[in-house]
Write a structure and sequence with these properties.
By secondary structure, this protein is of the alpha/beta class. It is 35% helix and 31% strand. The protein has 12 helices and 21 strands. The strands form 4 sheets. Strands 7-6-15-16-17-14-18-21 form an 8-stranded mixed beta sheet. A hairpin with a 2-residue loop joins strand 19 and strand 20. Helix 1 packs parallel to helix 5, helix 1 packs parallel to helix 9 and helix 9 packs antiparallel against helix 10. The longest helix is centred in the last third of the chain and has 29 residues. It starts with 8 loop residues before the first strand and ends in a 16-residue tail after the last helix. The chain binds flavin-adenine dinucleotide. Flavin-adenine dinucleotide binds next to helix 1, strand 4, strand 14 and helix 9.
Length: 414
């Protein structure tokens, strides 16, 4: 028998997937001195392209702390729009918001901002630049993980071009259809919502003053998220068939449909750039770990974007897993051992399940036009609005600053 073929490269950790969760993971580990490879199937130039992902992300206060901790907030601060207030109301087509609403204000929590709106392409750009400047970070893109042989002492990752890489731990950040989760036989609970989120950017005549608006229309939530300049990003959930038809409309008819929902509160509006459609669903993996494998971000869980929390959960996964790895390394322990991975899983499961079920419940409660239900939820919103302690609790949860927080979320070094 001949000797096994030589491995091409060796790192402490290999991250499969260079989406926003995978790249943050790579930056966190590299900043703490661990040699890390991130493997991404898209070319880096594509990730930066305006036509690749027209979304913005509402970044909670806790996630801003993580971005600061991994060294990208300085580059992002000037491109971030602070969310000064959030207004949530029921609405109907052409009639605008109900007079019973919930209003969250940064002053209620004594903070400069409730969070920030960032364009995904700006986040990706800052991550790619920081990765290029780091000696410990190795981005292999375009390249795909084709398979992984996970043994008791380490992992051998095979790329689609035949290269083989050794590591102590493999992190799957390979998105909602995670090939690594499927290959590990990890089952998942999955619900496909009969909704598509239509996403586009609009420029408007009047300033938004940093107010994010979530309007609950009968077929799904319609969010207007304040961007830099007089622009807002629209996340407009519609029933699947109708959404497909709306996405196919010509520019004039699309603008008319948009205006019927957007209303006139920001004056005349104009669509900027392309429109995008994202099918919506819920997914939760039954386990986040397997031998020398940890799932993070959408490889582990997908939630409805109704409150803009999906990436925030993924970033909290990053902070908890990075801390588990770094603590183990400092103690001279095996960073890919079952104990380290179990700590990560225990840490993240409750927060992720709670957020997924809350978002599912909210979407079901609000995506309909049943009279008594509409009245009950309007009264509910108005009631929470008048209960400062409950309101503050919801705000702090949305800001990502309650529970057992990892060091990066607390603004401490890893
Ligand atoms: C309409 C909409 C609005 C949203 N708004 C918000 C918001 O405001 N705030 C918020 O917190 N969240 C929001 N989210 C959720 C957020 O966008 C996602 O949670 C986040 O983008 C997921 O990032 P990820 O890195 O986990 O996965 P992905 O972005 O899917 O990244 C996975 C990466 O893995 C790569 N890959 C896959 N397989 C392989 C392989 N075999 N080898 C190499 N690479 C591979 C892919 O190319 C991809 O780049 C929203 C979601 C939607 C749909």
């Amino acid at each position: 028998m001949g000797s096994p073929p030589k491995l091409d490269m060796s790192f402490e950790v290999v991250v499969a997937g260079g989406g926003m969760a995978g790249m943050t993971m790579g930056l966190a580990l590299a900043a703490a001195g661990g040699s890390t490879a991130v493997i991404e199937k898209q070319p880096a130039g594509t990730l930066r392209d305006a036509g690749f992902d027209g979304r913005t992300s509402a970044i909670a206060y806790g996630s801003q702390q993580i971005f600061d901790g991994v060294g990208i907030w300085k580059a992002l601060a000037a491109r971030a729009e602070p969310i000064r207030a959030i207004r949530i109301a029921d609405g109907t087509l052409n009639e605008g918001p109900s007079s019973l609403f919930l209003h969250y204000d940064r002053l209620d929590v004594d903070s400069d901002a409730l969070g920030y709106i960032l364009e995904n392409r700006d986040i990706r750009d800052a991550q790619l630049s920081a990765a290029a400047a780091s000696e410990a970070f190795h981005l292999l893109a375009p390249a795909s993980v084709a398979g992984a042989d996970r043994g008791p002492g380490g992992v051998e990752v095979t790329l689609d071009d035949g290269r083989r890489i050794a590591a102590r731990l493999l992190i799957a950040a390979d998105g909602k259809n995670s090939p690594l989760r499927l290959a590990a036989g990890i089952r998942a609970t999955r619900i496909d919502y009969p909704q598509i989120a239509i996403v586009c950017t609009v420029a408007h005549a009047r300033p938004h003053d940093g107010v994010a608006v979530e309007l609950f229309l009968p077929s799904g939530p319609f969010a207007m998220l304040p961007m830099t300049g007089q622009r807002s990003n629209i996340v407009w959930s519609e029933r699947t068939e109708l959404a497909r038809n709306i996405l196919a409309l010509d520019d004039g008819a699309f603008l008319d449909e948009l205006q019927r929902r957007f209303g006139n509160w920001l004056g005349e509006i104009r669509v900027e750039g392309p429109r995008f459609g994202f099918p919506l669903g819920l997914m939760h993996a039954e386990r986040y770990t397997d031998r020398r494998l940890a799932l993070i971000g959408e490889a582990a869980h997908i939630i409805h974007p109704i409150a803009g929390q999906g990436l925030n959960l993924g970033l909290r996964d990053v902070a908890a897993l990075a801390e588990s790895i770094v603590d183990a390394r400092r103690l001279g322990l095996d960073i890919g051992s079952g104990e380290v991975l179990a700590r990560y899983e225990r840490w993240r499961r409750f927060d992720n399940v709670l957020m997924a079920t809350s978002m599912d419940g909210l979407n079901r409660l609000f995506s309909n036009d049943i009279g008594p239900l509409r009245l009950a939820r309007d009264l509910g919103l108005a009631a929470v609005n008048r209960m400062p302690p409950l309101k503050r609790f919801f705000m702090r949860h949305a800001m990502g600053v309650i529970g057992d927080l990892p060091r990066l979320v607390r603004g401490e070094p890893l």
